[in-house]
Amino acid sequence: MGAESADAVVIGAGPNGLVAANALADAGWDVLLVEANDAVGGAVRSAEALEPGFVTDLFSAFYPLAAASPIIADLDLPAHGLRWVRAPAVLAHAFDDGRTAVLHHDPEATADALDAFAPGDGAAWLELVGQWQQVRDPLLDALFTPFPPAAAVLQLLRRTGARGGLDLARLAALPVRALGRERFAGDGGPALLTGNAMHADLSPDGAGSALFGWLLAMLGQDVGFPVPQGGAGRLAHALHARATARGARTVLGTAVERIEVVDRRAVGVRLADGRRIRARRAVLADVAAPALYRDLVGAEHLPARLLADLERFGWDDATLKLNWTLDAPIPWSNPGAAGAGTVHLGADVDGFVDFAADLSVGRMPQRPFLLLGQMAVADPTRSPAGTESAWAYTHLPHRWADDDRAVAAHVERMELAVERVAPGFRATIRHRLVQAPCDLQASDANLVAGATNAGTAALHQQLVLRPTPGLGRPETPIERLYLAGASAHPGGGVHGACGWNAARVALRAAGRAGAVQRALVRTAWSRLLPFA
Q1: Are 326 and 390 in contact (CB under 8 A)?
Q2: Residue 280, C-beta contacts closer than 8 angstroms, at least 6 positions apart
Q3: CB-based contacts of 53: which residues, under 8 Å, 6+ apart?
Q4: Of 118, 239, 259, 390, which cross-links 18 as Cys (Cβ 3.0–4.6 Å)?
Q5: Where a domain ends, among 409, 443, 477?
Q6: Domain extent for 520
Q7: Does residue 513 carry a pLDDT above 60?
Q8: Model pTM greater than 0.70?
């Protein structure tokens, strides 16, 4: 491994940690990446976990944010083995009554499909697409850059004008259920928007859910829901190969036990095996915020206000994931779902509200909403010809996450939900792998009870409030320590922005203007989070 020191130590080799390592290595820094697991990737991993010849994506699977991310695009990952592939259709919502709403790659085809639900709904969809096309690039820049994204917002306003800017601001505050009612007469459009909003832990009646649903639906309409050919792990491997080619070093299978702090400055890390690594310039942590502050830094180094704010930190919902190998394609009752890589099912437009209400009050949903992936539809290399490698996940309240009987009952509800829209599905199952919330966390410590976004996506924990009320930036109260995981703005999803932002801030802080920047950050922290 060489000398026990580096310019920067990056804790965690998930997608954000890998992007951070690439950015620092590109700048000529000596980077050491430390990962507790025996493989890189975090929640971007795949394996032949059920039987040979069937590739299972163990966590995330479809990557519209990565495909749209200018950060990922600039890394030229195809040069390191990544190849994106797409299903014939992007997304379908399968209703229990046999209807299916389909998001096609061609917006006109999506519009035609929605007109079958109600005349005029296709035109309403194309209006949303037009709004997206007008603001796409500056909006993505605003979402992916550290707060405040002043330059991106100015560019956004130049594109939209004052009235368009107000419309976008209203969309940002609107519940997705209200957006669906305003725009569409039928159920197809609202189902596509709401299902996408519920990829996060946002209620259909919650402020901000319209923006998330519209954003993800429009990304699907724009770049699709692509997958790495050969498995999700190919994306992580490409990121790692690129960083390694630029000199980054990696320690696998050893956790960081402590970040060493001297005079409120991060100076290195201590590993679980007793080794100490000195960090000459920075430590970047691709870990959840509570773990960073409570476990790796320690309360003795932190402002009392920050510790109090961490007590109010909100996780997103727990997750239960099923993985199957099937001896035939899923027998959908409506063939519209057969060509979509991702399928939403289990809830109609009103059922979304019931499902979210159950989660809100801690009640186990009796009619779970499922997100399902049929991977061989998107990438035929995932399983032998004529078979399928599939998965589905749903959310459940944290109070039930450790209840084995409740989880087993929910597995049954999930498979019955698929059976309702694909009669005969269960007869095709060859093998099943259940990933309960505790299993997800055991595989990746950042997935606390299977919480996939490292903290709720609700408005009260976004922007300057993420992960706690403060700057909404990667800096921490500890000099030269940066939060590079999804607990930082802009949050969950595989886009690399959290890692990239942390790396760029670390580089600037170490540059000529670094002394001024560090002084400004310290001043801001001292005002917002005074030490007791």
Answers
A1: yes
A2: 5, 6, 7, 8, 30
A3: 383, 384
A4: 239
A5: 443
A6: 5-36+253-313+453-528
A7: no
A8: yes
